[in-house]
Structure formats: C-alpha cells, structure tokens
Design brief:
It is an enzyme of class 2 (transferase). It is found in: Cytoplasm. Catalyzes the first step in hexosamine metabolism, converting fructose-6P into glucosamine-6P using glutamine as a nitrogen source. Its main location: cytoplasm. The chain is of the alpha/beta class. The protein has 15 helices and 12 strands. It has a 5-stranded parallel beta sheet with strand order 4-3-5-6-7, with helices on both faces. Helix 12 links the parallel strand 8 and strand 9. Helix 2 runs antiparallel to helix 10, helix 5 packs parallel to helix 9 and helix 5 runs antiparallel to helix 12. 54% of the residues are buried. The structure holds 5-amino-5-deoxy-1-O-phosphono-D-mannitol.
Length: 366
C-alpha cells in the first residue's frame, strides 16, 4: 500500500507530479487558454463583485491560504485576508454578503474551519471550499467548491495536499484575473504554459533526494532551525518550519526574511542552521544581503536557489537548485526540498514519520 516506499509521507511527496496533473485535469486547457471550474463558473458574478476574499484554514492549509493571498492580490487584484479559523470564529469578525469566504481543508473535517464556515454563512457570505476529501463535512457545508483531487493523504504531515491546494488556488486566481481584465491575455496564456510544466519540474527536483538526504545527515542533531523567505515564498518558509517541527520534533520557526533583524537574528550562531529561499526573481538582492548578515554571524546556510545561481552559491554552506519558473509559482517547487529535508531528518532521528506523537490526521475537536 506504500507502493514500495518506506513511509506514506515519502510516497505522497513523490506523488506530487501526478497529483498536480490530476488537479489540472479537465480544468486547465493550456493550449486553448481556458480554465474551467464549475464551482467558480456557476457563481462568477459573486466572485467578480466581491469586495474581498477571506480565507479560513488551519495548519498547512492556512499556509496554502497565505500563498493564495499573494496570488489573488497580484493576479486578480482582489483584497484578501487570511485567517486562522480558530481566531476568526471567536473574534466577532466583520462579514457581509459582499464577502467571499474560501475555506481550505485537506480532510474537510477540521472542527475550527467547519465552525468558521457556519459563522460566515450565518452572516450572509458566499462560502467556497477547497477540500481534498470528497463528500467531507466542509465540502458539504460550503455553497460551492473545487476539490484538489490529490488522492488519499495518509501521512499526518501534509505534502501533496498543500501543493494541490496551491494549484487549485492558482487556477482560481488566474481565472478571476482574466475575467476581471486584471491580467493581459498574453500573460494569462504564458502562465498556463508555465503551470503545465510544473509537474515535470517537480520530477526533476525529486531526483536530487540524495543531496537533500546528505544535508539532513549534517543537521539532524540541530535543536533549532530558522526558515526564511520573502513574497510568495514567505508562506513556504512557514510551511518548511511546520513540517520539520511536526515530524522531527526539532524546534523551527519560519519568518519573512526581512523580519530577521527585528529579533530572530539574536539567535544566530554557529549552531543554527538557517534555510533561506532565495529564488532569482523573488527580491533576490535583498535576500542575498540577509544571507550575508547570517554568514557574518557564523550561521549555517542551506539556500534554495534557482538553477544557475552563482552569488548565493559562494556564500551558502549548501545550495539546493530548483528549476526556473515564474516567481508566482515557485512555491510549488521550493516546497519540495523542504518536505524532503524534514522527512530525512525525521528518519535519521528514528521518529514515527507517518504518525508523529500527539498529532491526528484530522483535528475534529477544537
Ligand atoms: O485537514 P485540514 O487541511 O483542515 O488540516 C489542517 C491542519 O490540521 C493540517 O494541515 C496540519 O497542520 C498538518 N498536520 C500539517 O502537516
């Protein structure tokens, strides 16, 4: 059932190219320049007239929501707020019938997310679900939605659910950007072509597993790790840190790279591994200067860079290259080595990778 892999998590990491293709299937017709999504098409007026989109989710799904904030605002120019479902529901939030609430949940059973949806509905908002499990409570409770079609995710650490959530949300952002006239036809077409190449690029990345495993062997005894990213890759830094904590039990934090000097820089010494996402178009120069600041304080740097990078390579202790793509879609690639890094560290430490202590696959109590 693990398809020859030692753990479900590793199997699910490797399933991502196929899972993303399944997410596109029947929806993205790249050569014709069409995105078909019944859940959006049937309610297009609502989406086009919405004052803002509020995304509610927990954990990894919340991180996918943060990536979506960057995508929706950049591509479709719709204001977005991303909320932890647990905070949103108890805050007496301001919701109107001009709001669209998007609930993101792999399991479709997360108690806080379900309660947040019910609250939003009671205030008149239109609620759209992005779920993986077909027929789940959240899928049933929402007015419309789009399934991620990632297939069953068994490992408690979410992997393919995250990348397929980002895929669905990218399609929605592009669809709305086009319908609202916020993105040119040529950019729309080129984005579809770019998205279509992502699964192949993930395949390429999965082939560097041995390199990531080597890096994991070097840092497996670390007690703390910092993950830094900017822009589209800030949420990936959060996700990388969550993945490491939950399966290896090593304390990790994700931060927007520029926030480092507002506190976390005090933690840096020769024992601190810092994973920095430094893709070529993502505020590259600014991230490079963050990397220099880390180096001058003797921190150990593992950098995720774009193929062909030379500057970061000279400073970092390790570099992992990702294939070139549009900056907006880099989270689909930069996430992969971070998943593998956590996986290998957890295996080296003898952790129960698929069922980490104290955690459940779906959190059905608040
Ligand atoms: O099923 P959901 O997407 O609603 O679950 C939300 C979180 O419980 C989940 O993403 C959790 O953070 C994962 N274990 C992270 O890997």
């Amino acid at each position: 059932e693990k398809g020859g892999y030692e753990h479900f998590m590793l199997k699910e990491i490797h399933e991502q190219p196929k899972a993303i293709i399944d997410t596109y299937r029947g929806r993205m017709l790249a050569d014709q320049g069409i995105i078909k999504m019944a859940g959006v098409d049937d309610h297009l007026e609502k989406f086009l007239n919405a004052d803002r989109i509020i995304i509610v989710a927990c954990g990894t799904s919340w991180h996918a929501g943060l990536v979506a904030e960057y995508l929706f605002e950049d591509i479709a120019r719709i204001p977005v707020e991303v909320e932890y479902a647990s905070e949103f529901r108890y805050r007496n939030p301001i919701i109107t019938d001009k709001d669209i609430v998007i609930a993101i949940s792999q399991s479709g059973e997360t108690a806080d997310t379900l309660a947040a949806i019910k609250l939003a509905k009671s205030k008149g908002a239109f609620v759209f679900g992005v779920c993986n499990v077909v027929g789940s409570s959240i899928a049933r409770e929402t007015h419309a939605g789009a399934y991620t079609h990632a297939g069953p995710e068994i490992g408690v650490a979410s992997t393919k659910a995250f990348t397929t959530q980002i895929t669905v949300l990218s399609l929605i952002a592009l669809k709305l950007g086009k319908a609202k006239g916020k993105i040119s036809n040529s950019l729309f077409h080129s984005h579809l072509q770019t998205l279509q190449l992502i699964p192949k690029k993930i395949e390429e990345l999965l082939a560097i597993d041995d390199q990531v495993k080597h890096i994991a062997s070097v840092y497996k005894n670390a007690t703390n790790c910092l993950y830094l990213g900017r822009g589209f890759n800030f949420p990936v830094a959060l996700e990388g840190a969550l993945k490491l904590k939950e399966i290896s039990y090593i304390h990790a934090e994700g931060y927007p790279a520029a926030e480092m000097k507002h506190g976390p820089i005090a933690l840096i010494d020769e024992n601190m591994p810092i994973i920095v996402i430094a893709t070529s178009k993502g505020h590259y120069e600014k991230v490079v200067s963050n990397i220099q600041e880390i180096k001058s304080r003797s921190g150990k740097i593992i950098a995720i860079v774009t193929q062909g990078d030379t500057t970061v390579k000279e400073i970092a202790d390790h570099t992992i290259e990702i294939p070139e793509t549009e900056e907006a879609f880099t989270p689909l690639l930069t996430t992969i080595p971070l998943q593998l890094l956590s996986y290998h560290i957890a295996v080296f430490l003898g952790r129960n990778v698929d069922q980490p202590r104290n955690l459940a696959k779906s959190v059905t109590v608040e």
